[in-house]
Amino acid sequence: MKKRIVCLSMAIIMLLSSLVLVSCGNSEPEEGTVTRMTVDINPSVEFMVDDENKVVSVTALNDDGSILIVGESFIGKTPEEAVELMVSIAAETGYLVEGNVEANENTVKISVSGDTKYAEKLLKDVEKTASDTLKELDINGQIEKAEALNSEALRTLALSTSLYTEEELSAMTDDQLYAVIAQGRVETALLLTEEMRNAYYSAKEYEISFAEREEVAKVIESLGGLYTITHSAYKISLDLYSSAITKLDELRYDLLVSPESEYQKSLVKLREAKVDLLKQKTYVASLEVNGEEYVSATATLQLSEENYDKALAAYEELGRQANAAMEALIAQLRQAEAQLIELEDTLFDENIEAKLAEKATEMEANLNAAKDAFFAEFEAAHAEDITAIEKSLLEKKQELKASVKGNG
Length: 408
Hints:
By secondary structure, the chain is of the alpha+beta class. It has 2 domains: 9-187, no CATH class; 194-406, no CATH class. The chain has helices at 9-19, 63-69, 79-92, 117-136, 151-160, 166-170, 174-187, 194-223, 227-257, 262-286, 294-347, 350-358, 360-381, 383-406, and strands at 35-40, 44-49, 55-60, 107-112, 142-145. A 5-stranded mixed β-sheet has the order 3-2-1-4-5, with helices on both faces. Strand 1 and strand 2 (44-49) form a beta hairpin. It is elongated, with a radius of gyration of 25 Å.
């Protein structure tokens, strides 16, 4: 369909091209650039930084990251301030441990995208900030440089967080890809977990594709006469496509998002195991090495680690099972989409093509309105889930803080 409708994607790519021309000799970000920074303490968190050296989005890259960022204000901070806050919260919640631990047990890994002078300076600055913060907190730790995503990995990430096609993304530079990713991250800022973001991106992709084809159906219907038959055949296939989209969205919710799903129940157990593990780790670190309680506490810590590993394995296995269960519906959806494409290739004559070209601007405006309205619709449909997720994460965060204080 994108070959038939004049869309804004290429225009946006051209705009991005004009914005992200970076001077390698400049230690300040050039106008329009976006930089991706990740901080991994396991919690793992991604920060997108704008051309004013301010954080514009913060995204948890794992469940521990969701616990760490919930209820915090990272947006608008400098990267250095964001790193300082993250390290401090990680210490408060037991992910970084004070006491008798080796430095490699408190490792902070940081990556900064790009090979510009600005990126080089930023990495040094945030590494120093992280190191200074560890010292201020009296935590024996170490800072490591992590590799930024390569071009292929960036395109994969951008494909999963935007409506751009593989072809469009393959024509973009790394800097343009960072801008696309940042746009998607800002859009989904309220969705704290990967499951909710995946549900959103999937629903948006298919719903906008359906809306695009609905616009086409309206154009065919407006031609009347003999084109009524063409419209009828196209509408039947479009209804099958819509039905497949709805079924997939419902199954994804039931298997991965619903609090009643086995997957979410296993996540609750995983978080409980993590609280127990961090609590025990903090307690062991507070003891005198080889003291009377140290040996038994270390043995208990090992059991906590084993329990956590089992809970993690169960959680990941349920995720694999859920994705496998969705494959059949995804295949049905692809089949329905293929039928629509076949109809477009075989039934659309010069009159339909001409009418589509004539209505292109109007159709594009309607599609853009649908894109702009989609998040509000998704948020309204999942308001209770979004609120429940935030509440659950905050409760777990407070529980972690309380356990750290209790061992302090």
